[in-house]
Each structure stands twice: as structure tokens, then as C-alpha cells.
Amino acid sequence: MTTRRPGPGLREAVDRACALLERPPLLVVSDFDGTIAPIVPAPGVVRIEPLGRVALRRLARLGARHPEQIRVVVLSGRPAADVAAHVRVGGLRYLDRK
Question: In the chain, at which end, N or C, are there fewer CB atoms within 10 A of the end residue's CB?
């Protein structure tokens, strides 16, 4: 099995992201439908991608440890309470299009 090394584009992106951490606050925003959850024909049956939930939990923990430096938001056209019920990660802000 071969290990892929990150290309120069990925390395540059990581370096740029790390530089942003030096200028707080860092705002991390993710859309729900089509980003951390697939687009589905019936909105009530949507399921967040497992890796999306893992990432949000990690970001929420970082935000809890460094509230002055990192803020994490899930944005959606759905009502915020609906998205929060599907995501089920505490420590995030859920925003909708009001």
C-alpha cells in the first residue's frame, strides 16, 4: 500500500489555514444540505455524513477550549432547530435564513 503525500496545493491550503489561526477569531461555517448531508428527495429523511459529524464535534471541542479564537456555525435554509436535531452536536451555532 502506498501512502499519498499531500500535493503542493494541499500544503499551501494547510499553511494558509494555520496562518488564519494567528489572527483570531476564526469563523468556520458549513452549510447543511449538500455539504455535510446529502441532498435527498424527502427532507425529513436526511442523515448527516458520519465524517461531517466527527469534524463538527472536533471543531466544537476546539471552540469550547478557545471561544475567543474559534467559532463554528452550521447554516441552512431549514429552520435552525431542524438542523440542530439532525446534526446533534453541541457547542455549535445553528443559523437559518430568517
Answer: N
